[in-house]
Amino acid sequence: MKRSEWKAWLYLLPALLFLAVFMLYPLVDVLIYSFEESYNSASQSYTGIGFYNYSYILRDPYFLQALKNTLILVFVTVPVSTALALLLSVALSSIKPLRRLFQTVYFLPYVTNTLAVGMVFMILFQKTPYTNGLVNLIIGLFGMSPVDFIDGPYAAKMLVLCIYTVWVVMPFKVLVLTGALASVREDYYSAARIDGTSRFRIFRKITLPMISPMLFYLVITGFIGAFKAYSDAVAIFGTDLNAAEMNTIVGYIYDRLYGDGGGYPSYASAAAIVLFLIVLTITAINLLIRRRKLQGGDAQ
Amino acid sequence: MNVAADFDRVARRARIQRILLKVAVYTLLAVWALVVLFPFYWMLLTSLKSYSAYNSEYIPQLFTLNPTFRNYVDAFSAVPLARYFLNTLIYTVLTTGIMLITVIPAAFAFARLEFRGKNLVFTVLLALMMIPNELVIITNFVTVTNLDLRNTFAGLILPSVMSVFYIYLLKENFEQVPDGLYRAAKVDGTSDLKYLFKVVVPICRPTIITVAILKVIECWNSYVWPRLITDEAAYYLVSNGIQEIRENGFGRENIPAMMAAVVVISVPLIVLFLIFRDRIMEGVAKGGLKG
Amino acid sequence: MNVTLQNLTKRFPARGKKGEDVVAVNAANIEIKDGELLGLLGPSGCGKSTVLNLICGLLAPSEGQILFGEDDVTELPPERRGIGLVFQNYALYPHLTVLQNILFPLENLKGEAKLTKEEMRERATRIAALVQIDGLMDRRPSELSGGQQQRVAIARALVKMPRVLLLDEPLSNLDARLRLQTREEIRRIQQETGITTIFVTHDQEEAMSISDRIVVMKSGVIQQIGQPQAIYDDPCNLFVAKFLGTPPINVFRGEVRENCLYIGEAAVLHLKDTPDRAVYVGIRPEGFVPDEAGALVCRQKGVEIMGRDVSVVATHEALEAPALRAIVSSDQKLSRKAEAVAFSLKPHKVFLFDRESEERVPFAVKEG
């Protein structure tokens, strides 16, 4: 028995080694960093333990800008993309011809390099001395004056970022929702049809409750994903996100770590912990709401 | 009969409603397909326009009559795009390979072997799945820097290897292999290792391939870690490369050439996707997440 | 409500470009009387479920008409036909309670038919009492046994007072004991409500036991319609004869020669005015009479005592199946060790079928 136990650990060893060095240890370490004040990466020394790093970043205008951007991104893109994905999935599920083709097309953004395609979005929206760009051409058709979406007003830049984010997250959402819709048995729909249930009522009373666990899952993962947004912003606005006022929390973390504003792993750690706490809180709130809803449904 | 007439009208109205709905549904789907495909079309189109033609278009043209491959030549000659490609290939293959070598035995141990503390270790593993990468990347950055592994493949690859989710996915799949096979193998005196590679791995090949493809996609698109850990162009991956081209290379002015580069780095994954479409989509649906 | 199916045909387009259309139902004509319980019986793939789906409007027929009373409902969508359908796996909404499930169809009513909350609740309670689930109203389907789910499904189908009730394999998801109980329950509910009911099954025993009449189908074609006993006693072809009855009918290869029915070389029945031809001889298990002087001599393989009856298992070289089974009264003295057993036959339990067409061949027995 002992020999076989020893062998089992041998099978686990490589994986555990990687996990310990690159996940478990960093997890502890990042907490420690976040409390070490005035850490100097060159001398690896610090002056004290405390909450200074947290209070610093919470007063850092770059961090506050990043926080604001991230929050806008989260609360715009998650509802919009989830609703749009639901609409498209329901439409997809209601057709037979061409469904596979549409599904393939819709999935494409998932397998493309975020950085690469982001640049296409940039040139589509960009206004340069040589050209107003395609998007401006189109909005010009509706009588609006051209806007510089990449270097112009904050709202315009935010809009592009939101649009690109939605474009990027749609494949996963559509995929999950079409799967969920397909798993609702045909019988339920037949039964409802025979009872003369209207399309809208079928959707609200049968489809929606049946796929609600998946919707809920998508909202949670959507929140988490949106809070971790970064590459999309880099793709469109370049690496100097602070200058573009388009930084995100994750971007702030990396900027504090490395690059022009870098060399402050303590600030980065504090920001990372703040991010983690926000995500954790939202997940917990969501879980609570869901539980309450379930219990309420039972009591009815 | 009056009633029959009423029935007729109802039936006709229902049919018209159905047709209208179909039209609306297909229109909606087509519009989104257009939204998805247009950026791809635009990158391809732009990459085929000549530099001068592109810059002289104040109003962007939706097609070109004089396609040129000049931009592709430029993209490869102006920056070491081939080098970025090779780096990405090395990074992707090695990371995926090491990942498989470590993940498969671990999943097998959780699925099949008995040892004390198994449940505890597995629970910790599941908890680790919730930890965002951003939390651990800071220390990893410091670790790699201190080990003098910046601008090396080791520094790029080692922290990217582990994916707890894949251990979980494979463990679930390995457990599907019937118990009887394991007992039969034991009766025949087959060692665990031989059983793993001669029985479990072949049976679970589809899932292993799915996991490998997902990892390849992840590696090919990874940007953050390579950006932190490399600042020499000799070690850039395609994501950093393209960003570098844009900010410091020809991308600032030569957009057609940049788009050529964008096409080149986008094509491999699209081809991979079209080949393994069902497997990739199934794997992602099981819990893949972008980012 | 009378239900009439006229020349009802359903073709499904072939898979691929070349193949021919699949005819699931071929020119079915059935007249179902008001208040009747009709069983649609056939092996899987015979088109019986398609008939059900055509009646309820989930499928549109390729040809033919469906009449409810005088109304032609062929073109009507399901919800306007006034039918209740109980699905094979019940299709109860898992996220709704029993009460909410039963109320669901009522809440769809619009305009004049709209009911107040109290009326709905009153109707639901009454139906629940009818199917005896009144104590379970706040449970969810997952908390119910199979039999209870079945009752809820029936209640949901009945609550909107349909003109016709349709049941798709109502007993197939229940275990053997519940099946017996539930089929009596269905019969009782049907008789209490007097609603015209059509149910689909592949289980002949089920169909025989509760139907007023049954329709036997095979490959989309109706083989025979009639009261269960009538069909059993007078099957129109070999398929129907084989499909009805447990244990199943025993089929021999035989021959009519010079007004004599031969099985092998044994002349088992003497006939009148029957032309010579090769036939299949179908003999119901209860058609065998052990008789030392009997003409049909079989190799005995065993005797199974079942209390009231005794079942004799034997073989014969002209037999289509590996073994035959005869049910005889336990009063008969039979040696369990005997090598051979001889039978005489009850002529009204013997059916002849043409060897080619498998259609029934009438015959008359010479008296004496």
The CATH class of the largest domain in chain C is: Alpha Beta
Assign a percent range to the helix content of chain C. 10-25%
Strands ordered across the widest β-sheet of chain C: 21-20-14-11-12-13-22
Query: How many β-strand stretches of chain A?
Result: 2
Element-by-element helix/strand order of chain C = EEEHEEEHHHEHEHEEHHEEEEEEEEEEEE
Strand content of chain C: 25-35%
The CATH fourth-level homologous superfamily of the largest domain in chain C: P-loop containing nucleotide triphosphate hydrolases
Strand content of chain A: under 5%
Biggest interface between chains: A-B, 89 and 90 residues
Name the shape of chain A in a single word: globular
Query: From N to C, what is the helix and strand string of chain A?
Result: HEEHHHHHHHHHHH
The number of distinct structural domains of chain A comes to 1
User: What summary fits the major beta sheet of chain C?
Assistant: 7 strands, antiparallel
Please identify the oligomeric state: heterotrimer
Low-confidence stretches of chain A: 296-300
Distance linking N and C termini of chain A: 54 Å
Radius of gyration of chain A: 24 Å
Overall average pLDDT of chain C: 89
CATH topology of chain A: MetI-like fold
Produce the secondary structure layout.
The complex is a heterotrimer of chains A (300), B (291) and C (368).
Chain A: H1 2-35, E1 36-37, E2 48-49, H2 52-59, H3 61-93, H4 99-107, H5 114-125, H6 134-141, H7 154-182, H8 186-194, H9 199-227, H10 231-237, H11 249-257, H12 265-299
Antiparallel strand pairs in A: 1-2
Chain B: H1 2-48, H2 51-56, H3 70-78, H4 81-112, H5 118-128, H6 133-146, H7 153-157, H8 164-174, H9 179-187, H10 192-203, H11 205-221, H12 224-229, H13 238-248, H14 255-275, H15 277-285
Chain C: E1 3-12, E2 22-32, E3 37-41, H1 48-56, E4 63-68, E5 71-72, E6 83-86, H2 98-107, H3 117-130, H4 146-158, E7 164-168, H5 176-193, E8 196-201, H6 204-210, E9 213-218, E10 221-226, H7 228-233, H8 238-243, E11 250-256, E12 260-263, E13 266-272, E14 277-283, E15 288-290, E16 296-306, E17 309-315, E18 324-329, E19 340-345, E20 350-354, E21 360-361, E22 364-365
Parallel strand pairs in C: 3-8, 3-9, 6-7, 7-8
Antiparallel strand pairs in C: 1-2, 1-4, 4-5, 9-10, 11-12, 11-14, 12-13, 13-22, 14-20, 15-19, 16-17, 16-19, 17-18, 20-21
